[in-house]
Design brief:
Elements (H helix, E strand, L loop, with lengths): L1 H7 L26 E6 L17 H7 L2 E6 L3 H10 L4 E4 L1 H9 L19 H4 L5 E2 L2 E2 L2 E7 L1 E5 L11 H4 L14 E4 L5 H11 L13 H15 L2 E5 L2 H10 L4 E4 L1 H9 L4 E4 L5 E10 L6 H11 L2 H11 L2 E2 L15 H5 L7 E3 L6 E2 L2 E2 L3 H12 L3
Parallel strand pairs: 1-2, 1-3, 8-9, 8-10, 12-14
Antiparallel strand pairs: 3-12, 4-5, 6-12, 6-13, 7-10, 7-11, 15-16
Helix pairs in contact: 1-3, 1-14, 3-4, 7-8, 8-14, 9-10
Length: about 375
Amino acid sequence: MLERYVFALVGIASLAATPAFAEGPLASIGKGEGKVDIVAWPGYIERGETDKNYDWVTEFEKKTGCTVNVKTAGTSDEMVALMNEGGFDLVTASGDASLRLVAGKRVQEINTGLVPSWGTIDKRLQQAPWHTVDGKHYGVPYQWGPNVLMYNTEVFKEPPKSWSVVFEETTLGDGKSNKGRVQAYDGAIYIADAALYLMAHKPELGITDPYALNEDQYKAALDLLRKQKLLLQRYWHDAMVQIDDFKNEGVVASGSWPFQVNLLAGEKKPIASVVPEEGATGWADSTMIHAEAAHPNCAYLWLEHSISPKVQGDLASWFGSVPSVPDACKGNTLLGDTGCETNGFGNFDKIKFWRTPVAKCPQGACVPYYRWVTDYIAVIGGR
């Protein structure tokens, strides 16, 4: 656990710096180099090994001759660490990692002219601030969605209305306490979830943005997280381990991704999810090219493939996410014509998308991300 946070500190101090790459983006696509190495979230790049219906790798490999190699990461901090180490061509980065990668010069500008389907991307995402800096694009939007509250339907006869079931000790529907039966995310960005909860329950704090906290707001969020620690079964970062915890370790509620919900529901487990009344944090992920990518031609070929309507729709069905290409919302056998609506296409403005906190913010001085990292380590360690 500690190693992920130590690596995450690399490059954070330079977040406010303006990127200045020695060379511009790739001017043209040549012959594929034979492979492409990708850092990705679990479930984001499938070749049919879990379910043969979900495979958007095999066809790409046959068509391009580029073998796809995937390294999964459970948190944005892990992704930043892996990209800092090098050896990868692409990363499916969330907003709390993407600007760190740009500022740290770990990714290169995208030549959108080499991505023919760029114009089909949701207009709400094309200029998104988590991948666009000084008018230059450093990522191609991939998928987006909320961090949902996953719960056991045998314990919760009605969907929980509030995140209080994971932040405050309470008696659940089965007459037992939630203590030792809930989880929290093992990533410093989770401080924003506490801040989002406080926005609704302690309005006197004046929090308007869970990623831009002054000292008093930040202290309140940490105090809530220290209180929450006493309730937790564990901090999760491995999606498959969380799935096992819900099946075998008595966990009944936690912030989660639609991916875990879908897999558990697919196994006919008593699992469902909800976005509570306070709203939710969320992720809008962009595929970014490493500044020193060894296989840039295959990387660009993957960028185009990744936003094809078929891939976008299949992935949205598999992960429970929302496509970055609206055309994927119709005519996809796996997703269905109501899948985008079900996954939250209309909730874009209700989600507080992950973003790296910085010291200079609209309210003046805010607590920067390196403090979030070190202080969350302390919270997890009981300090």
